[in-house]
Amino acid sequence: MKKYLFLITIAAVSLTSCGVYKNYERPADVKTDGLYGSAQVGTTEQGLGAKAWREFFTDPKLQVLIERGLAQNLSMRQLDLQIQEAQEYLKCSKLAYIPSLAIAPQGQISSFDWSKPLKFYTVPLSASWQIGSFGQLRNAKKKAEVGVEQVAAARQAVQQALVANIANIYYSLCMLDAQLAISELTAKNWRESVETTRKLMAAGRSNKAAVAQSEANCFNVEANLLDLREGIIEAENALCTILGETPHHIDRATLNEFQAPAAVETGLPIALLQNRPDVRQAELALASKFYDVNAAQASFYPALTLSGTLGFTNNGSSVELSPGKWLWNVLGQLTQPIFQNGRLRAQKRVAVMQQEEAAMAFQQTLIAAGNEVNTALVKLQTALDKRSFIDGQINSLTDAVSATEALYRDNVSRQVNYLNVLTAQTGLLSAQLGQLSNQYAIISATIDLYQALGGGSLSN
Fold first, then answer.
1. DSSP secondary structure of 340-402
2. C-alpha dihedral, 176 to 181 to 185 to 190, nearest 10°
């Protein structure tokens, strides 16, 4: 036994000295400074990405849709099963430390020259314990732990995308509703304008060209109404698909009810390492390769196996049920790889190269995440800057329509005809629809920024 303890001590010291028991640490050359470019907003470490989706999306109707999506979406349910599978693999890795036990009863009947047969039976209980391979077992366990975290991060990534998609489609429906309302009112006004133009032509105050132009504009608005209604149904069906439901009407609020964050803060770029599921997945992939290298290194060192057997046998006596002899044995085996045709060294070189590849993929994922944040910020700021110009455009066009209509009614100097009125009204409609589109662009860019910062992956 002292010899075994000595061998175990030597093996443990050897494995510890070679680093196979080290835990993964983030590489020192992974840099986060400047990931957002010059677009960083705020000085706190955490920004919008640290908010759970319920804190960010406060619309009760949208919250109900997100809850249904998270509960019913098939991709989410599949990943829940994958998490359970990864947890079972982790249990297997942990149980590898425990000695294995097996019982293998054997029986035999033999006779020589048709004499009275002799009956033999043996009931052994065998045990085996791999001690010297703890370096490989530990790294297999650590890799399994990383695997569980990877699947969990994958689930969070799907949840993040799911929450953002539901919110974007929801608010696009709100925008389409507002555009439809304006277009329906405009179509009503155009129908009245057509009738007015016809009456004016009959009275000699207008002409055929004005009537034709008025009718053409009316037909255009009516056609746009059909496109808007079709777009609403398509958006509702798309949202129902995400929810895992058959087509139906989606209950929703109005576009103006969107509550923008009180303060838009990106936080420090280092927060991406914690908040973004895809960044965490990339780092976990690097950690997994780190433990592969450790396991490959451990394969160079001796493996000590202790095994033993305890049981009884009747030793061929006529007594069948009572044990004749007790038997036991203990075996210690030390295996040291000497020549493996370069296989072990090649396996380690491959593991090291794969670790380097994972490190580069991690850095690239981090850079891409920073660029997404920068892009979302630029989109949001552009839409916010455009808002004042569009508001001014609508105010001017509203005044232009009023003035043109007044001039036409007064018929001053006959310099304004009804075509001028139609042109002013068409410009105002286009600007009003553009204003709604820009309002949605602000909401969409805010959602994109929230997602780019890792928001939506956390639940309340």
1. -TTHHHHHHHHHHHHHHHHHHHHHHHHHHHHHHHHHHHHHHHHHHHHHHHHHHHHHHHHHHHH
2. 10
Residue in 101, 106, 239, 110 with CA at minimum distance from that of residue 169: 239
The CB-side HSE value for 123 (13 A sphere, CA atoms) comes to: 9
Find all residues with CB under 8 Å of 128, minimum gap 6, and list them.
99, 100, 305, 306, 307
Per-residue model confidence (pLDDT) at position 414: 59
Q: Residue 99: enclosing H or E segment and its boundaries?
A: none
Alpha-carbon gap, residue 159 to 79, rounded angstroms: 10
* 268 within 8 A of 451, measured Cβ to Cβ: no
- Please name which of 20, 77, 73, 93 lies closest in space to residue 295, comparing C-alpha atoms: 20
Closest to 293 (Cα-Cα) out of 69, 19, 110 = 19
Could you please report the per-residue DSSP string of 149-215? HHHHHHHHHHHHHHHHHHHHHHHHHHHHHHHHHHHHHHHHHHHHHHHHHHHHHHTTSS-HHHHHHHH
Taking the C-alpha atoms of residue 209 and residue 293, their distance in angstroms, rounded to an integer, is 81
Q: Quote the pLDDT of residue 89.
A: 59
β pairing state of 303-313 and 325-335? antiparallel
> How many Cα atoms within 13 Å fall on the side-chain side of residue 310?
3
**Which residue in this structure is represented by tokens 């010291």?**
13
Query: CA-CA distance, 295 to 285, in Å (whole number)?
Result: 15
DSSP 61: H
Closest C-alpha to 293, from 339, 341, 358: 358
At 196 the pLDDT is: 80
Q: How far apart are CA 373 and CA 36, in angstroms?
A: 6
C-beta atoms surrounding 366 within 10 Å: 23
Helices (H) and strands (E) counted in the chain, each on its own, are: 10, 5
311 and 323 Cβ atoms separated by less than 8 Å: no
Rounded to the nearest 5°, which phi and psi values hold at 127? Answer: -135, 145
Mean pLDDT in order along the chain per 10 residues (460 residues): 50 54 85 76 71 91 92 75 66 58 66 66 62 69 84 85 91 93 88 83 78 86 92 93 91 89 75 87 92 84 67 56 60 60 81 92 91 90 92 92 81 64 84 91 92 80
Q: Domain 24-97+134-175+225-303+342-452 is in which class? A: mainly alpha
How many CB atoms neighbour CB 321 within 10 A? 6
Please name the amino acid found at residue 46: Q
pLDDT, residue 131, reads 57
Q: Which amino acid is at 363?
A: Q
